[in-house]
Design brief:
Strand order of the largest sheet: 1-2
Number of strands: 8
Number of domains: 1
Radius of gyration: 23 Å
Strand content: 5-15%
Length: about 450
């Protein structure tokens, strides 16, 4: 799971011969596509642990059956995630060699830890989980699920820590030639930005997994098949989905937003389309940023709320873009503004849908309202969209910096890789990933159609 999206803005009339443009586009495409898979596996790892734990109770065989099904889905996601993640490792050396040369002494620590420990822990215990239930028995198989969860979430720790250094660099020293070195490992790992970002990201991944589990259960209910498993999946998915949707907003999202307000004022101003500084800053529910005229067109605003959310006081001053040097502005204000509002808008809808689904399930009329089942089934793509918009918000807000305030994106690209080579490989990635996507959807669809079967692996 690589989160450091290097795509900044592109000019309205892009210079197609500009290598930096193609480096950004290629990394942005590969990372966005890749992260479609880890965001499900991380959240699903926790839900599998819950299912396996409940299966240990007397009469918990149905939870074991559900866990067995979702382990297969996890395995397919993990395989495609590995395949799509490998090209990004090489891009650090090909497209972003100068960045790697300057910062490798810091970020190389956590990237190496992710590969040596988290990835191998996750992959090793996945094999035990898929093929070892009969040999291990229920309790050891549950332990394997816990180890898989630890590996999956530990991977998130290392990658998020790496990205947090790019957002809010701490724990480093820098030599006269510009090369970064690690000065304090624990300061680096316990970066406040990393802690908040990690919590926010993991809750967002749990939202994705919860919506997928709920969607599959709703699909089976609509078809009238696997009814016991369908109800169990809807129950687990909606409970976890409501908890995770609330946690994404508060406290994790709130803490993350306050860090942006404190350390990246230009990003906050662009996210809200705010050009003028002042107290009692409005929060904008909608509008169209007009950068040329330095204003937000057709805004719908709530007075003073931005000041309170950002700094805890309705009278707090919020800096606007007009008081920030223009060469330090995020390089795609419009895209950043819309990505942020898509993320927040969808997150609000997730809370509403999961609250309604839990109420309907608790009152016993969920299955009588097919429109709600259809809503739950069709909602599963939107957490993927929200997660993508969230990471776009984080990374576009960081621009024009690779390491915020210290190293500009334009200074991190490989000087010897020309635009034609990068454009050619980007076309190749696009075609290859399309074929991988078709194969993945076919395999997932076949598993959902096949459904869970209680007699696949008897308890030892």
């Amino acid at each position: 799971m690589w989160h450091a999206i290097l795509l900044g803005a592109v000019s309205p009339v892009p210079m197609l011969s500009n290598p930096l443009l193609w480096h950004r586009l290629q990394f942005a495409f590969t990372i966005v596509y890749h992260y479609l898979f880890p965001q499900l596996t991380m959240g699903l790892a926790l839900l599998i642990v819950v299912m396996k734990g409940l299966a240990l109770r007397p009469g918990g065989e149905a939870y074991g059956t559900a866990a067995r099904f979702w382990v297969r889905i996890f395995g397919l996601n993990f395989a495609i995630g590995v395949v799509t993640g490998l090209p990004m490792e090489f891009q650090f050396g090909t497209n972003w060699a100068r960045f790697s040369q300057l910062t490798g002494g810091v970020i190389g620590q956590t990237l190496a830890l992710e590969g040596m420990f988290a990835f191998f822990l996750e992959s090793s215990f996945l094999a035990m989980l898929v093929w070892g239930e009969k040999q291990l028995g229920p309790r050891k198989h549950f332990a394997a699920a816990v180890a898989l969860f630890v590996g999956s979430w530990l991977s998130g720790v290392f990658i998020t820590t790496t990205n947090a250094f790019m957002q809010h660099p701490v724990g480093y020293t820098r030599a006269a030639d510009g090369v970064f070195s690690l000065a304090n490992f624990w300061t680096y790992v316990l970066n406040p930005w990393a802690l908040a970002q990690y919590a926010h990201n993991q809750m967002a991944s749990l939202v994705t997994a919860s919506f997928v589990v709920t969607a599959v259960g709703a699909y089976w209910l609509l078809r009238g098949v696997h009814l016991e498993q369908a109800r169990l999946n809807v129950k687990i998915g909606t409970i976890a989905g409501l908890f995770a949707s609330l946690a994404v907003a508060f406290p994790t999202g709130d803490v993350q937003a306050k860090l942006v307000a404190t350390h990246q004022p230009a990003a906050l101003a662009a996210m809200e389309g705010r050009f003028e500084s002042g107290p009692r800053a409005d929060i904008h529910l909608i509008g169209q940023p007009n950068v040329a005229k330095r204003r937000l067109d057709n805004p719908i605003a709530v007075p003073a709320v931005l000041s309170f959310l950002a700094f805890g006081s309705f009278n707090a001053e919020v800096k606007g873009l007009n008081d920030i040097p223009e060469n330090d502005w995020p390089t795609s204000i419009e895209l950043l503004y819309y990505a942020f509002h898509v993320m927040v808008g969808l997150g609000t809808l997730f809370i509403g849908l999961m609250a309604l689904a839990n109420l309907a399930r608790w009152r016993g009329w969920l299955e009588r309202h097919r429109w709600l089942l259809w809503s739950m089934m069709l909602a599963f793509p939107f957490p993927y969209i929200a997660n993508t918009a969230g990471w776009m918000t984080a990374e576009l807000g960081r621009q024009p910096w690779l390491v915020y305030g210290l190293l500009r994106t334009s200074d991190g690209a490989s000087p010897t890789v020309h635009a034609g080579s990068t454009a050619f490989t980007l076309i190749g990635f696009t075609g290859l990933y399309f074929l991988l996507g078709v194969a993945f959807l076919f395999l997932i669809g076949r598993e959902v159609q096949h459904g869970p079967h209680a007699d696949e692996v008897p308890h030892a």
